[in-house]
Amino acid sequence: MNTKFPKNFLWGGATAANQVEGAWDLNGKGPNLADAMVAGSHKVERKITLDINEDKYYYPSHVAIDHYHYYKEDIKLMAEMGYKVYRMSIGWARIFPNGDEEKPNQEGLKFYKEIFKELKKYNIEPLVTIYHNEMPLNLVKIGGWSNRKVIDYYVNFAKFVLNEYKDDVTYWIPFNEINDLTTGVGNWNHGGILNEGTETFQNQKDDPNKRFAALHNQFVASAKAVIIGREINKNFKFGTMICHITVYPLTPHPDDVLLTQQEDQLRNCFSGDVQIKGYYPYFMKNYFEKNNIKFECTDEDIKLIKEGVCDFYTFSYYMTNCITINKEVTQVSGNIMGGAKNPYLKATEWNWQIDPVGLRYTLNHVYDRYGVPIMITENGIGAKDVFENGEIHDDYRIDYYREHIKQMALAIEDGVDLVGYTPWTAIDVVSCSTGEMAKRYGFIYVDVDDKGKGTLKRYKKDSFYWYKDVISSNGEKL
Ligand code: BG6
């Protein structure tokens, strides 16, 4: 197959601070919400403990893969793969330990400065997520994102980092997967909301009024960050980031088709519309009315949202799901929402349905809707890797990427302006939903297990060498 990618296509990889850094209480860093999540598994839900008790529980983010100390080695390996771009996040509590201070923690600022210096050494463009599920734990106590005060705290944080790194970074993502709050699963992890009775990350008590208030506050915060950012450096480019769970009707029954359209609007389109088009879409006004959902939204908020729109569209893509009105149908899991099993697709061990063609479909879907440059900022397969004599033969990962990249090329041929790709992940990380290391995503293997045991040594998987060739051939050699 002749795969044609644009000359300056941004090949790279992604991570998030809370899933790689570790050093959770070092050099002035405060605890964030990920630091309060106990390890779980596919079968065991992740417990949330506001009082962190390391004697009793194991919290994987506390050491993670210790990127805090290994970043030079990690970036060197990324450079060896030929990365043009590296998507990472800035841990809010590393800069503002409690989230509400006026002055930043200098040690925290220094750490990211060092990372940017290292990236520059290898000509790797940073793509920085300002908020990737990393709310300082202190702000959880005031209701997380459902409290409007958090907008100001975030803006203060964003202003500092945008200013501090104005010469180091061009591409920014104000919020990771901002649409996570369109479902109850987003309450804790994304919104910092801990409703009474919530014990685990997966099984959360839901209050839609609070949840949509929190999402609205994030839209306003994002818009403010974009507006301030443009004043700081007019060359900054801001991207939305949507957890795109593409949905298909399970049957051609018109009721299934209609429900699929509604799910797509709510989960996928709504947040993209607000951040790219600059307004609440008509279908959400109707949704709020029908479900009696109320939250504070001022005229000033509407003005800000209109003004602070993003420049490019990015999304994570792992799977697709089917939608049906039939409640009896078998459901499969997904990250922010599950759905009906698609009989034509295989799934990962964690039951995420693998659908490369769905990526081409999704790219066309979003490009048609927004017409702005697109980046895929997460895509990958969580799998159990076998480590033997320093080698990891992850042909399943290579197959997954090969098939997805083929579809990206076809979407480009369709006319989609796809400008970059940062697979999840550059290097093994702690899984967000399960807290496992066993659910591995990286091109680089890290010797650490689900209990935090291991040498932390880094090893190149077979996919490392394969991806290196993909990048050097600009997607020709798959
Ligand atoms: C995305 C998140 O939803 O999915 C990442 O942005 C996360 O933080 C990724 O790691 C994969 O999910 P999981 O639960 O397998 O780690």
Automatic annotation (TrEMBL):
EC number: 3.2.1.-
SUPFAM superfamilies to which the protein is assigned, alphabetical: (Trans)glycosidases
Keyword Hydrolase in annotation: yes
UniProt KW Hydrolase keyword: yes
Database matches in InterPro entries: GH, GH_1_N_CS, Glyco_hydro_1
GO terms for MF: hydrolase activity, acting on glycosyl bonds
Keywords: Glycosidase, Hydrolase
The family this protein is said to belong to: Belongs to the glycosyl hydrolase 1 family.
Name of the protein: Glycoside hydrolase family 1 protein
Organism from which the protein derives: Anaerostipes hominis
